Protein backbone atom coordinates (compact mmCIF):
# COMPACT_ATOMS: atom_id res chain seq x y z
CA UNK A 1 0.00 0.00 0.00
CA UNK A 2 2.84 2.38 0.80
CA UNK A 3 4.32 1.90 -2.66
CA UNK A 4 0.89 2.24 -4.31
CA UNK A 5 0.28 5.57 -2.57
CA UNK A 6 3.82 6.66 -3.45
CA UNK A 7 3.20 5.82 -7.12
CA UNK A 8 -0.13 7.69 -7.12
CA UNK A 9 1.60 10.86 -5.92
CA UNK A 10 4.91 10.47 -7.73
CA UNK A 11 3.23 9.69 -11.07
CA UNK A 12 2.00 13.32 -11.08
CA UNK A 13 5.63 14.50 -11.22
CA UNK A 14 6.96 15.42 -14.62
CA UNK A 15 3.55 16.24 -16.08
CA UNK A 16 3.27 19.91 -15.17
CA UNK A 17 6.39 22.05 -15.18
CA UNK A 18 4.80 24.63 -12.88
CA UNK A 19 3.81 22.06 -10.24
CA UNK A 20 7.23 20.40 -10.48
CA UNK A 21 8.92 23.74 -9.97
CA UNK A 22 6.70 24.49 -6.96
CA UNK A 23 7.42 21.08 -5.38
CA UNK A 24 11.17 21.36 -5.98
CA UNK A 25 11.12 24.88 -4.52
CA UNK A 26 9.23 23.67 -1.45
CA UNK A 27 11.46 20.62 -0.95
CA UNK A 28 14.64 22.72 -1.01
CA UNK A 29 13.44 26.23 -0.20
CA UNK A 30 11.10 25.71 2.75
CA UNK A 31 14.05 25.65 5.14
CA UNK A 32 14.87 29.25 4.20
CA UNK A 33 11.29 30.32 4.89
CA UNK A 34 11.50 28.57 8.28
CA UNK A 35 14.74 30.42 9.04
CA UNK A 36 13.16 33.73 7.98
CA UNK A 37 10.07 33.15 10.15
CA UNK A 38 12.23 32.07 13.09
CA UNK A 39 14.38 35.20 12.83
CA UNK A 40 11.25 37.36 12.66
CA UNK A 41 9.89 35.67 15.78
CA UNK A 42 13.21 36.16 17.59
CA UNK A 43 13.15 39.87 16.81
CA UNK A 44 9.55 40.34 17.89
CA UNK A 45 9.31 39.94 21.70
CA UNK A 46 10.55 37.91 24.66
CA UNK A 47 7.59 35.55 24.30
CA UNK A 48 8.55 34.83 20.72
CA UNK A 49 12.20 34.49 21.72
CA UNK A 50 11.21 31.70 24.10
CA UNK A 51 9.15 30.04 21.37
CA UNK A 52 12.17 30.26 19.07
CA UNK A 53 14.34 28.63 21.72
CA UNK A 54 11.79 25.83 22.23
CA UNK A 55 11.83 25.34 18.48
CA UNK A 56 15.63 25.25 18.39
CA UNK A 57 15.73 22.60 21.12
CA UNK A 58 13.05 20.56 19.34
CA UNK A 59 14.93 20.79 16.03
CA UNK A 60 18.18 19.77 17.76
CA UNK A 61 16.48 16.79 19.40
CA UNK A 62 14.86 15.82 16.09
CA UNK A 63 18.21 16.01 14.31
CA UNK A 64 19.75 13.78 16.98
CA UNK A 65 16.88 11.27 16.76
CA UNK A 66 17.12 11.29 12.95
CA UNK A 67 20.83 10.48 13.19
CA UNK A 68 20.30 7.72 15.77
CA UNK A 69 17.56 6.02 13.75
CA UNK A 70 19.71 6.08 10.62
CA UNK A 71 22.56 4.42 12.53
CA UNK A 72 20.41 1.38 13.28
CA UNK A 73 17.82 1.26 10.51
CA UNK A 74 18.11 1.44 6.74
CA UNK A 75 15.30 1.57 4.23
CA UNK A 76 16.22 2.12 0.56
CA UNK A 77 14.81 5.23 -1.03
CA UNK A 78 12.12 4.78 -3.68
CA UNK A 79 14.40 5.76 -6.57
CA UNK A 80 16.93 3.11 -5.53
CA UNK A 81 14.41 0.27 -5.36
CA UNK A 82 11.87 1.23 -8.04
CA UNK A 83 11.54 3.09 -11.28
CA UNK A 84 10.20 6.51 -10.25
CA UNK A 85 9.91 10.02 -11.57
CA UNK A 86 13.01 11.35 -9.92
CA UNK A 87 13.06 15.15 -10.24
CA UNK A 88 16.13 16.11 -8.23
CA UNK A 89 19.30 14.37 -7.10
CA UNK A 90 19.48 12.98 -3.59
CA UNK A 91 21.74 10.90 -1.40
CA UNK A 92 21.17 7.17 -1.41
CA UNK A 93 20.94 7.06 2.38
CA UNK A 94 17.96 5.72 4.32
CA UNK A 95 14.49 6.81 3.29
CA UNK A 96 13.30 6.78 6.91
CA UNK A 97 13.18 9.14 8.62
CA UNK A 98 12.92 12.09 6.27
CA UNK A 99 15.23 14.72 7.74
CA UNK A 100 13.41 17.57 5.97
CA UNK A 101 10.07 16.42 7.36
CA UNK A 102 11.11 15.60 10.92
CA UNK A 103 12.81 18.99 11.30
CA UNK A 104 9.90 20.88 9.71
CA UNK A 105 7.36 19.24 12.04
CA UNK A 106 9.56 19.65 15.11
CA UNK A 107 9.75 23.41 14.57
CA UNK A 108 6.16 23.82 13.35
CA UNK A 109 4.70 21.90 16.29
CA UNK A 110 6.81 23.87 18.79
CA UNK A 111 5.41 27.10 17.42
CA UNK A 112 1.86 25.73 17.08
CA UNK A 113 1.80 24.78 20.76
CA UNK A 114 2.49 28.42 21.69
CA UNK A 115 1.09 30.60 18.89
CA UNK A 116 -1.76 29.15 16.83
CA UNK A 117 -1.68 31.42 13.77
CA UNK A 118 2.06 31.34 13.09
CA UNK A 119 2.15 27.67 14.07
CA UNK A 120 -0.65 26.81 11.66
CA UNK A 121 1.20 28.53 8.81
CA UNK A 122 4.35 26.58 9.70
CA UNK A 123 2.40 23.32 9.98
CA UNK A 124 0.90 23.81 6.52
CA UNK A 125 4.41 24.46 5.22
CA UNK A 126 5.60 21.28 6.99
CA UNK A 127 2.79 19.27 5.34
CA UNK A 128 3.79 20.69 1.96
CA UNK A 129 7.43 19.86 2.67
CA UNK A 130 6.56 16.24 3.40
CA UNK A 131 4.31 15.98 0.36
CA UNK A 132 6.99 17.50 -1.88
CA UNK A 133 9.48 14.86 -0.73
CA UNK A 134 7.15 12.18 -2.11
CA UNK A 135 6.48 14.18 -5.27
CA UNK A 136 10.17 14.50 -6.15
CA UNK A 137 10.72 10.76 -5.55
CA UNK A 138 12.83 10.84 -2.38
CA UNK A 139 10.54 9.24 0.24
CA UNK A 140 7.60 6.91 0.68
CA UNK A 141 4.39 8.24 2.34
CA UNK A 142 4.98 6.11 5.46
CA UNK A 143 8.43 7.73 5.84
CA UNK A 144 6.79 11.15 5.77
CA UNK A 145 3.98 10.21 8.17
CA UNK A 146 6.45 8.61 10.60
CA UNK A 147 8.81 11.57 10.41
CA UNK A 148 5.95 14.03 10.97
CA UNK A 149 4.84 12.01 13.98
CA UNK A 150 8.35 11.87 15.47
CA UNK A 151 8.98 15.59 14.94
CA UNK A 152 5.65 16.47 16.54
CA UNK A 153 6.12 14.12 19.51
CA UNK A 154 9.58 15.54 20.18
CA UNK A 155 8.09 19.06 20.32
CA UNK A 156 5.31 17.95 22.63
CA UNK A 157 7.82 16.31 24.98
CA UNK A 158 9.95 19.47 24.97
CA UNK A 159 6.84 21.55 25.67
CA UNK A 160 5.76 19.29 28.54
CA UNK A 161 9.19 19.62 30.14
CA UNK A 162 9.17 23.40 29.62
CA UNK A 163 9.67 24.29 33.27
CA UNK A 164 13.17 22.83 33.19
CA UNK A 165 14.11 25.17 30.32
CA UNK A 166 12.59 28.44 31.59
CA UNK A 167 15.57 29.72 33.57
CA UNK A 168 17.96 28.70 30.78
CA UNK A 169 15.86 30.59 28.22
CA UNK A 170 15.70 33.66 30.46
CA UNK A 171 19.50 33.51 30.80
CA UNK A 172 19.95 33.37 27.00
CA UNK A 173 17.52 36.25 26.41
CA UNK A 174 19.19 38.36 29.12
CA UNK A 175 22.62 37.81 27.56
CA UNK A 176 21.26 38.53 24.09
CA UNK A 177 20.00 41.95 25.26
CA UNK A 178 23.22 42.59 27.16
CA UNK A 179 25.25 41.77 24.03
CA UNK A 180 23.06 44.13 21.94
CA UNK A 181 23.54 46.84 24.57
CA UNK A 182 27.33 46.43 24.41
CA UNK A 183 27.30 46.63 20.62
CA UNK A 184 25.16 49.79 20.62
CA UNK A 185 27.32 51.35 23.33
CA UNK A 186 30.52 50.59 21.47
CA UNK A 187 29.16 52.01 18.20
CA UNK A 188 28.10 55.29 19.88
CA UNK A 189 31.39 55.71 21.79
CA UNK A 190 34.34 55.56 19.38
TrEMBL record:
Residue ranges of every copy of the Phosphatidic acid phosphatase type 2/haloperoxidase domain listed in the record: 48-159
Membrane-spanning parts: 21-45, 51-73, 117-136, 165-184
Name of the protein: Undecaprenyl-diphosphatase
Gene3D superfamilies per record: Phosphatidic acid phosphatase type 2/haloperoxidase (1.20.144.10)
Provenance organism: Bacillus taeanensis
GO cellular component, one term: plasma membrane
InterPro entries: PAP2/HPO, PAP2/HPO_sf, UPP_Pase
Key words of the record: Membrane, Transmembrane, Transmembrane helix
Top-level taxon: Bacteria
GO MF annotation: an example: undecaprenyl-diphosphatase activity
CDD domains listed in its UniProt record: PAP2_BcrC_like
